[in-house]
Design brief:
Elements: H1 15-40, H2 47-55, H3 59-64, E1 71-75, H4 80-93, E2 98-100, H5 108-118, E3 129-133, H6 136-145, E4 150-153, H7 161-164, H8 167-180, E5 184-188, H9 192-195, E6 206-212, H10 223-233, E7 255-261, E8 264-269, E9 272-277, H11 284-299, H12 307-315, E10 325-329, E11 332-338, H13 342-351, E12 358-362, E13 391-393, H14 397-406, E14 414-415, H15 418-427, E15 434-438, H16 440-451
Parallel strand pairs: 1-3, 1-4, 2-3, 4-5, 5-6, 6-7, 11-15, 12-13, 12-15, 13-14
Antiparallel strand pairs: 7-8, 8-9, 10-11
Helix pairs in contact: 1-2, 2-5, 4-11, 6-8
InterPro entries: Folylpolyglutamate_synth_CS (IPR018109), Lipid_II_synth_MurT (IPR043703), Mur-like_cat_sf (IPR036565), Mur_ligase_cen (IPR013221), MurT_C (IPR013564)
GO molecular function, one term: ligase activity
Pathway: Cell wall biogenesis; peptidoglycan biosynthesis
Length: 463
């Protein structure tokens, strides 16, 4: 490893004051950009971070370097934002002061933006630990600047292949995170591409796993399982697809998800079966909860929180920004469900009964969504046949409507403009619960539009 000792300078040398002034200038400019962006409703949550990085490229590494418990990095295809929120919330409930990037802006500049909004003019971060969500590709950029003490790697699915290429490319990116982690890497035992990253961790780095009981394996198929079943359904063969060994020898897991119920789950920790109620929506978030539990236990192994405290902390976690978040409009719930790949959309549809709800689907193809929307054809929409879809919107509204037609799902209205679509959707059956399945940029636009007509928690994100 190349030594960096030559770069260190005593306080009386001129380099240190210059860095201090540059850091202060970057922070002041970043705060000004954030204020202007919010007042003008232009720009996203990452803009201040982009400006700060240009002024002071070392800002991120220097600001996070002094945390007593280091940095937790959470990455993977599905579940990053919710799992990050779970970990941060649980650690706070258990007594730590936590810094996190709450909006799901998961590029390095998004983390810097979150720092800008948190820091005082001293530039010192008052926290015990940072819990950060990073996009699979930007996680690699992050670990070149900051070595995480802990990493939680969730899964690898076919998501935004126009950005990442083959699914194994995504796994290689996460492998670089495992290689850079200095304390412990927590891995998904049931995802073969994630589990084998244990071999890439440094000799001094610990490895822990989270997993599923055998009874739940079919609830949460891996990417290989899902695409193998698709080929079989089409009359093809799955013989050429690598399948994980799902029974017999199992890697030991720190936490396993044992049973799923309505807003309740059972987990096994060191042979003990524990149950708790959950405020989170969707069966997929119960597996994310197992991942969060495993990571929290690793971080707090010196404290060894008791079972009751762990379950109580988990039961208090609320849905993350735009991920099953419920916004009340004229006395009725409007739920935003983020969807961005076949597995996530499938699990979302299987988690919610459409009966008694009005359903809207909003699909856009901006860079943050992924430009290739062909993955919609890998989702089974037949669960919506009986109720139909009240509104389809977004730049790819007609593609979505065509996909629904192939599954014989009736569509009542198509409107590409999201603002007009939302207004029309809310006027249908006033007072009735509503659910919107939306891609990332659709969620941001819809959330902003809802914020203009009803109360929405501030997430610091521009329209």
């Amino acid at each position: 490893m190349r030594s960096t000792a030559s770069k260190a300078q005593p306080a009386d040398q001129p380099g240190r004051p210059r860095r201090r002034w540059r850091s202060l200038l970057a922070l002041l400019v970043g705060k000004a950009v954030r204020l202007v962006s919010r007042l003008s409703h232009h720009g996203g949550s990452a803009l201040p971070g982009k400006v700060v990085e240009r002024i002071d490229p070392d800002f991120l590494a220097r600001t996070l370097s002094g945390l007593p418990r280091g940095v937790v990095l959470v990455s993977g295809t599905n579940g990053k934002t919710t799992t990050t929120r779970m970990v941060a919330s649980m650690l706070e409930s258990l007594g730590l002061e936590v810094f996190t990037n709450p909006t799901g802006s998961n590029f390095t500049r998004g983390v810097v933006s979150a720092l800008v909004s948190t820091l005082g003019l001293s530039g010192r971060l008052h926290a015990d630990i940072a819990v950060l969500e990073l996009d699979e590709a930007y996680a690699v950029h992050f670990v070149r600047q900051v070595k995480p003490r802990y990493a939680l790697l969730l899964n690898v699915m076919r998501d935004q292949l126009d950005r990442f290429g083959e699914i194994d490319t995504t796994a290689r990116l996460l492998g670089q995170v495992a290689q850079a982690t200095t304390g412990t890497v927590v891995l998904n035992r049931e995802d073969p591409r994630i589990a084998k990253l244990a071999a890439q961790t440094p000799a001094q780095t610990g490895v822990a796993y989270f997993g599923l009981s055998d009874d739940l394996l079919t609830y949460f198929p891996t990417d290989d399982d899902m695409h193998a079943s698709d080929r079989c359904a089409d009359g093809g063969s799955a013989a050429s697809t690598p399948r994980p060994v799902r029974h017999g020898h199992r890697l030991p897991a720190e936490v396993t998800l044992e049973r799923v119920m309505d807003h309740r789950a059972a987990f096994r920790l060191d042979g003990r079966l524990l149950e708790t109620d959950l405020r989170l929506e969707g069966v997929y978030n119960l597996y994310n909860a197992a991942a969060a539990l495993a990571l929290v236990r690793v971080v707090l192994e010196d404290r060894e929180p008791d079972d009751a405290a762990l379950m109580d902390a988990l039961s208090k976690v609320t849905p993350a920004f735009g991920r099953g978040e419920v916004i009340t409009y004229q006395g009725a719930p409007v739920e935003l469900v983020l969807v961005k790949n076949p597995m996530g959309f499938r699990l979302a549809l299987s988690s919610f009964d459409p009966a008694g709800q009005d359903t809207m689907i909003a699909i856009r193809d901006e860079y943050a969504d992924g430009r290739d929307m062909s993955w919609l054809w890998d989702v089974d929409f037949t669960s919506l046949r009986d109720t139909g879809v009240a509104m389809v919107s977004g730049t790819r509204a007609y593609d979505m409507a065509l996909r629904l037609a192939y599954d014989q799902v009736p569509t009542e209205a198509i409107e590409t403009d999201l603002d007009r679509a939302l207004t029309a959707f809310l006027e249908v059956h006033p007072g009735r619960p509503k659910r919107i399945y939306c891609t990332y940029t659709s969620m941001l636009r819809l959330r902003s539009a809802l914020g203009r007509i009803t109360s929405v928690d501030d997430a610091g994100v521009g329209a």
